[in-house]
């Protein structure tokens, strides 16, 4: 019987101890004791399934999380990491060496941009940045020595959609492998595996926890890639997820589908209420007919997702007045949370960039990023409308 994502998110990967506990156990241990010296030797030589050596390599609670998220994503395996950035940097560093070429979309989360622009280049990797929505730009940038293509499927914060299937086809035709940071699209609306993506990365801090508690990340792909390429790099460089975090993330996965669908329904309602509002220069929501790529978003994710961007008329001063007038929506820089959150990218998440870089990415002084939570729909719409009145 093939199970739905919803069922896998509740039961997948569960390991029960001799006590038969209902809720997943936290194996808060860094090491494991062996019955004999011979057993220790054999395990170091080749641990079999569900045999553990040291928590930097693996742990039963972490393994439950890895199996559950891999079942959800439809990949053979996964490696859990200490944060989303440990996943992004580990996914890339484990695949690349000096002299390799990478093509990346330009519109990236600030820390992703740092890894590609400042870290990889320091180790002799050549990186070309392109407009992720322009298939000709991808085609022109790909070379015979291109090893990796990297992009965020929904760009932060302007919510441009990268055509996963088309970019993957172009990359594979040139022998490059595709790494997608799929945080904004969420594992709920991901079809990356069937679209041919080789390596999928999430910050579990976002929709997977979804309740603002813990930092975490995960790298997903084929068993050969995860155990042969990712694991050796991660287990020796130290970016492992803690067993406690894995337990928080397991409990997050149980309710993730419900939360993300409720957040998406709220986001659609907010988009409908704000479309054409006189105080807004732009309202960007991939699930709304006014988004230039709404068909692609629909085809790729089957939904508009949990994130919106608004550009208020009147620049930074108006944006700050809007933020300060919000009563339910919180000012923060997290996203994917049960609580609705508003962010001013130009002065926070993208402050490090020059004004020119920000302008190139569409991050204007009036732009607000909205991560929609699970609160009551009419409360959120009312809160945002009353804050716009104060602009
Ligand atoms: C938050 C985020 C990350 C980094 O995740 P952390 O858990 O904060 O390290 C990477 N990519 C995207 C798109 C993100 O939103």
Quote the distance from N terminus to C terminus.
Answer: 55 Å
Largest sheet: 7 strands, mixed
Secondary-structure class: alpha/beta
CATH topology (level 3) name of the largest domain: Aspartate Aminotransferase, domain 2
Spell out the helices and strands N to C.
HHHEHEHEHEHEEEHHEHEHEEHEH
- Strand order, main sheet: write it out: 1-7-6-5-4-2-3
Kindly state the mean pLDDT as a whole number?
Answer: 96
How many domains is the backbone divided into? Answer: 2
Low-confidence stretches: none
| Helix percentage | 25-40%
Which small-molecule species are bound to the chains here? pyridoxal-5'-phosphate
Report on this structure.
- By secondary structure, this protein is α/β, with parallel strands linked by helices.
- It is built from 13 helices and twelve strands.
- A seven-stranded mixed beta sheet has the order 1-7-6-5-4-2-3, with helices on both faces. A five-stranded mixed beta sheet has the order 8-9-12-11-10.
- It is globular, with a radius of gyration of 21 Å.
- The mean pLDDT is 96.
- The site of pyridoxal-5'-phosphate has 17 residues, from α4 and α5.
Topology:
Elements: H1 5-11, H2 37-45, H3 60-73, E1 77-81, H4 84-93, E2 101-105, H5 110-122, E3 126-130, H6 135-141, E4 146-152, H7 164-173, E5 177-181, E6 199-203, E7 217-221, H8 223-237, H9 243-274, E8 280-284, H10 294-301, E9 307-312, H11 315-325, E10 330-331, E11 341-343, H12 355-360, E12 367-371, H13 377-389
Parallel strand pairs: 2-3, 2-4, 4-5, 5-6, 10-11
Antiparallel strand pairs: 1-7, 6-7, 8-9, 9-12, 11-12
Helix pairs in contact: 1-3, 1-9, 3-9, 4-5, 9-13, 11-13
Pyridoxal-5'-phosphate binds at residues 83-85, 88, 109, 111-112, 152, 156, 181, 183-184, 203, 205-206, 215, 217.
């Amino acid at each position: 019987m093939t199970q739905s994502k919803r069922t896998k998110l509740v039961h997948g990967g569960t390991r029960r101890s001799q006590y038969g506990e209902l809720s997943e156990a936290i194996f808060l241990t860094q090491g494991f004791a062996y019955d004999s010296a011979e057993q220790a030797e054999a395990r170091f030589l080749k641990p079999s399934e569900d045999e553990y050596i040291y928590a930097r390599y693996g742990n039963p609670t972490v393994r439950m999380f890895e199996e559950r998220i891999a079942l959800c994503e439809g990949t053979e395996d996964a490696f859990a990491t200490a944060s989303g950035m440990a996943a992004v940097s580990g996914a890339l560093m484990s695949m690349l060496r000096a002299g390799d070429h990478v093509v990346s979309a330009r519109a990236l989360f600030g820390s992703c941009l740092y890894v590609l622009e400042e870290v990889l280049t320091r180790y002799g990797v050549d990186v070309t940045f392109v407009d992720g929505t322009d298939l000709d730009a991808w085609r022109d940038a790909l070379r015979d020595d291109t090893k990796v293509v990297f992009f965020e499927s929904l760009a932060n914060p302007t919510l441009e959609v990268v055509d996963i299937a088309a970019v993957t086809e172009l990359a594979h035709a040139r022998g490059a492998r595709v790494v997608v940071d799929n945080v904004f699209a969420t594992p709920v609306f991901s079809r990356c595996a069937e679209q041919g993506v080789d390596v999928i990365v999430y910050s579990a801090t976002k929709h997977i926890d979804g309740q603002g508690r813990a930092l975490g990340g995960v790298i997903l792909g084929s068993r050969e890639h995860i155990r042969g390429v990712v694991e050796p790099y991660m287990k020796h460089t130290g970016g492992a997820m803690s067993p406690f975090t894995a337990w928080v993330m397991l409990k997050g996965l149980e309710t993730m589908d419900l939360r993300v669908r409720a957040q998406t329904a709220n986001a659609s309602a907010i988009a409908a209420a704000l479309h054409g509002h006189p105080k807004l220069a732009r309202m960007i929501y991939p699930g709304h007919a006014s988004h230039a790529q709404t068909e692609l978003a629909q085809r790729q994710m089957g939904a508009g997702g949990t994130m919106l961007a608004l550009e208020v008329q009147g620049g930074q001063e108006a944006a700050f007045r809007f933020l300060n007038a919000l009563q339910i929506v919180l000012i923060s820089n997290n996203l994917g949370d049960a609580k609705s959150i508003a962010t001013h990218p130009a002065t926070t998440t993208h402050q490090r960039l020059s004004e020119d870089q920000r302008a190139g990415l569409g991050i204007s002084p009036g732009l607000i990023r909205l991560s929609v939570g699970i609160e009551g729909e009419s409360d959120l719409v009312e809160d945002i409308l009353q804050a716009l009145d104060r602009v």
